[in-house]
Amino acid sequence: MASSLPADGRDLVFGTGAGVVGFLFGLALLVVGATGRIDLLDQSLAVVVLVVVAFAFGVAGLYDNVALGVPRRGAAHLVSGSAIVLALLAPYGESSRLFAVTAGLFLLAAGIYQLAIAVGVLESDQQPADELKS
Q1: How far is CA 133 from CA 37, 126, 128, 130, in A?
Q2: Is the pTM of this model over 0.90?
Q3: What sign for the dihedral angle of Cα 44, 47, 53, 56?
Q4: Sequence-separated (6 or more) residues with CB below 8 Å from residue 60
Q5: Exposed e or buried b for every residue in 98-115, given b needs 16+ CB within 10 A?
Q6: Kind and range of the H or E element at 131?
Q7: How confident is the model at residue 12 (pLDDT cuts 50, 70, 90)?
């Protein structure tokens, strides 16, 4: 499906998907952190899912930054991947609830940012120096 869409349609589909996934994972991590059920993050299936999603966000972020030259979207993907890695470390930290809540907040922020870029509220290819000139 995605290969049959024009580039703008692909950006909308993938950007919306990444934003929704980040937002939902962020909510889930906030709930896990708030309820203190950090043991859920130490189960094999949860670890596999989190590693796969973190890897996907990392690859997408590097691809956006390096190959496509879209730094804002790439940075949002990298923040999402880093937040998931932080969540993976939660069961091993002393303040495990803080790890999970912080990861959830970062994922919520990155998910909302990715959705804003996908629907066109923010420009994904504008360089920071361009903003200073205007």
Answers
A1: 48, 12, 9, 5
A2: no
A3: negative
A4: 14, 18, 74, 77
A5: ebbbbbbebbbbbbbbbb
A6: helix 128-133
A7: confident
Phi and psi angles of residue 70, each rounded to the nearest 5 degrees, phi first = -115, 85
CA atoms of 109 and 79, how far apart (whole Å): 9
Cα–Cα dist 93/6, whole Å: 45
Pick from 131, 14, 32: which is nearest to 90 by CA?
Answer: 32
pLDDT digits (tens, 9 = 90+) for 79-110: 999 999 989 988 887 888 898 999 999 999 99
Smallest Cα–Cα separation from 14: which of 27, 1, 28?
1
Q: What is the pLDDT of residue 108?
A: 94
Residue 47 predicted with pLDDT over 50: yes
Give the Cα separation of 104 and 86 in Å (integer): 9
Are the C-beta atoms of 113 and 80 separated by less than 8 Å?
A: no
